[in-house]
Amino acid sequence: MTALLKVEGLKVHFPIRQGLLLGRQVGAVRAVDGVDLEIEEGRTLGLVGESGCGKSTLGRAILRLSPITEGRVLFDGVDVASLKGEKLRSIRQDMQMVFQDPMASLNPRQSVETLLTEPLRAHGIPFDRKVRVRELLEQVGLPSSAAQKYPHEFSGGQRQRIGIARAIALEPRLVIADEPVSALDVSIQAQVLNLLEELQTSLGLTYLVIAHDLAVVRHVSDEVAVMYLGSVVEQAQSDDLYDKPLHPYTKALMSAVPVPDPVVEATRERIILQGDLPSPADPPSGCRFHTRCPFRQPTRCDTERPALRELDRGHRVACHWAEEIAAGKITPRSSGPEDVVMFTSRPSSPSELLGSSE
Amino acid sequence: MNAGRRDNDQPLLSVRNLAVTFQLRGQHAAKAVDDVSFDIRAGQHVGLVGESGSGKSVTSLAIMGLLPRRGVRVSGEVMFDGTNLLSKSRGEMSALRGRDISMVFQDPMTSLNPVIPIGIQVAEIIQRHFNASKSAALERTEELLARVGIPDPRRRLGEYPHQLSGGMRQRVLIAMALACEPRLLIADEPTTALDVTIQAQVLEVLKKLVADTDAALLMITHDLGIVAGLCDTVNVMYAGRVVESATRERLFAQPQHPYTGGLLESIPKLDSPRGAPLRPIPGSPTQVLPWSEGCAFAPRCGNRTEECTARTPDLDPAGDRHLRCFNPLSRTAAEARR
After folding, report:
1. Closest by alpha carbon to B265, among A160, A190, A221, A156?
2. Looking at the complex, does the CB of residue A158 fall below 8 Å from at least one CB of chain B?
């Protein structure tokens, strides 16, 4: 199998300017800071991370919706990053996007029929309006009577189906889905996830699924990449990653996801990270994660930025100490909000509660 | 633990047949909450689970007396510590709120005042309920912020909400809610706006503080995972009514209402093998039958029979739980699925 999409050393930096007229650049928000990815045709790569880690920017940069600072995006061998004008426009036929909030990404004044045929018109593809619209609606499980309706007449799940129908209207090869289900109710999410899988089978689509929900990503992806502060910290086959997470951040992320099973909840290992995500405008030195890492070591972590290296077959991790952690030679520092001072006894009266200053 | 507290026989909060109807002049009445009953004992953690529009938040607002008076009809009983909260005057309720019952809301950005330093906002509650001086209240606030895990609390006292991250803001709200050591804390989706690792931090703080102050907790969420880790008993709501109510062990081990079962099956799980198909609940939460004409879940239910659209099921005791269903998932089927 060959890689349909190959991302090499991709950087997206947003300049921070100061000054009224000339706009001197005083720094940059390093939203994506050196990412390498590969997706084989017909497969699904999941991209997980918390808000602000750069996963959406990465998705947008692949479609050139965000300016690329450095690096290459090879789509079927063509470097998208260097394309311009008509060539860029036409390559986008093969790469489409499904957005998070279908209410915001569908024009409320366009009927479903107009929405679905606009991409075809924009790319000058001849089509039979009635036939194509009916076909698309059928593919996403909507009745053909939906064609004349407007987005507000649908429920959230149906709207997302319209968004998906629009994305597949041009018969793309790659679909980038940015948080495709996070705006939907839990009972609806599964319907949309199943639809994405069905479409992959019937149309041979390649997916890049971007999400913050690890369970969703695990469910749909063949391979998963975990992002933290602009770079990929771990990448592996879906099962390998979940069975044997190697990077401390992946471990923490997985232990933080609440599991709807009281038995599992009561027994599993918990790693609670301290602090918040540092600012991508001023990322920590060395390993980006060292400020919050429960496995942090006195050397290397704060000085040397770890590269993504292959530990097991197809399992890549960016951590200096991954082998030692996996072997259990390094244990996490006691986690939890230890800086929380607890009262030893419960004050019973307001005056006691307030101390003697009253 | 505390002499002033009631013994465990009598529930601290007892909601009986709570119904909330919204009606604006000249428009159709919308029943958001209908016939909701549950109990919370002192120190107990109770979950209220449902999707958006199921009426879980309206239930909490009705308990707190925070619904607008115009265009809203609230009926039923909300007994707190032996008195009916629904019959209390506005003044009585505001003396109670923040002192005996307090609430943590979903979005910390909109529930904090953006132009007042957080220290003042937390201290305000202590000043109001304990008649404390400003300096004493601020001192106590500093202590509270330290307890919820905010580093350098003295400096934070003077900061504005926009200077704090989402997780920190939610901690401030928790500090505020627990400032007067209330006996009941209502948390309405307290971590929905947060990232998972921050959510884990905040839940840990919340859990610890609630245990410490011995408060009862009503946790309102759409996330079954949070409930599984936190609550003693769980009430599942659908279209304004409780459809299943059980201890968390029973509920998760053997969901009996088709909605609960369907919900659990439709969630992708971290530990399930890849490729295991999800079994979604068909239809959408907007396709409901009015409860007056049968079971609201009937249009989406796989176990539907004629009875379901002919009669309205009641919330009846069924073995180890309360269930509002004519055709529950059988035990064997539930076991076979696991």
Report:
1. A190
2. yes
* Tally of CA atoms within 13 A in the half-sphere of A2 that contains its CB: 5
> From the CB of residue B3, how many other CB atoms can be counted at a distance below 10 Å?
5
Same domain, A83 and A186: yes
Among the candidates A194, A228, A262, a domain finishes at A228
* Other residues' Cβ atoms within 10 Å of the Cβ of residue A326: 16
- Both A223 and A258 in one domain: the answer is no
A204 near A192, Cβ under 8 Å? no
Interface test with A, best of B131, B189, B197 (most A CBs within 10 A): B197
**Cα(A236)–Cα(A314) distance, rounded to whole angstroms?**
6
ipTM over 0.85: no
| Least Cα separation, residue A275 to chain B (angstroms) | 8
Residue B126: how many other CB atoms lie within 10 Å: 26
Instruction: For residues A58 and A67, give the distance between their C-alpha atoms in angstroms, rounded to a whole number.
Output: 10
* Mean pLDDT of the A36-56 span: 92
Nearest C-alpha neighbor of B73 from the set B112, B20, B26: B20
d(CA B102, CA B65): 11
CA B113 from centroid of its chain's CA atoms: 23
The pTM (predicted TM-score) of the whole model is 0.84
- Residue span of the structural domain in which A262 resides: 253-354
A260 interface with B at CB cutoff 8 Å: yes
Which positions 228-247 of A are in contact with B (Cβ < 8 Å)?
238-239, 242
Closest chain B residue to the Cα of A182, Cα to Cα: B192
**Using one digit for the tens of pLDDT, what is the confidence trace for A216-256?**
998 999 999 999 999 999 999 999 999 899 999 999 998 88
Same domain as A200, residue A116: yes
Min Cα–Cα distance to chain B from A356, Å:
9
Query: What is the C-alpha separation between A195 and A262, in angstroms, rounded?
Result: 30
Residues of A in Cβ contact (< 8 Å) with B225: 257-260, 265
- Domain match, A60 and A199 both: yes
Give the nearest chain A residue to B222 (CA atoms).
A186
Residue B251: strand, helix, or coil = helix
Residue type, A2: T
Query: At residue A33, what is the residue type?
Result: D
